[in-house]
Amino acid sequence: MKKIFKQKQRCLLIALIALIWTSCKVDRVLPVNESVKDISGSWKVLKASRNGTDLTPLVDFSQFRVKFDAEGNYTLVNDLPFVVNKNGKFKLDDPNYPFKIVFTATGAQPLTTAFNYPVVGGARQLNLTFSPGCSLNTYVYTLVKE
């Protein structure tokens, strides 16, 4: 009697495992292709800091602009301390997942700086981190599109 009961338990257990095994559906999730980051347009300073100190109320950034075009050129309007001090070319290290931007001012060596492209409050921002001249001073500019 015990032997028959154990056999029924085993059969029931095997049937239950088979039922669970066949009822599981595995969906394959394909990776999403990230879009190419387009930074073309005119960008103004929303916030600027040096070594963690907010410079925005201390310096008039209202006239400064950096304009990027689709051909890889940038133009500075109303110069301020920035990664570069002349117009030139730019390139993102990866068009889909950029972490760095390379500025090549006309007649100068390329300068690479940290690049972040978050969406904050529904608007795209550019965060650039750089040290012009002295490596002890780190600037962070947060730019928004006009």
Describe it for me?
This protein has one helix and ten strands. Helix content is 15%, strand content 38%. The model has no long low-confidence stretch (mean pLDDT 86). It has 146 residues and is an alpha+beta fold. It has one helix spanning 2-23, and strands spanning 41-50, 53-54, 65-68, 73-77, 88-92, 100-105, 111-116, 119-120, 123-130, 139-145. The chain has one domain (41-145): Lipocalin (Beta Barrel), CATH 2.40.128. InterPro entries: DUF5004. Keywords: Signal. This is DUF5004 domain-containing protein.
Beta-strand content bin: 35-45%
Order of helices and strands: HEEEEEEEEEE
Number of domains: 1
Main sheet: strands, sense, barrel: 8 strands, antiparallel, barrel
Chain-averaged pLDDT: 86
Annotation, overall tally of beta strands: 10
**Under the CATH scheme, which architecture would be assigned?**
Beta Barrel
- Return residue spans where pLDDT drops below 50 for at least 5 consecutive residues: none
CATH level 1 name: Mainly Beta
Structural class: alpha+beta
Q: Which overall shape is indicated by the principal axes computed on the Cα atoms?
A: elongated
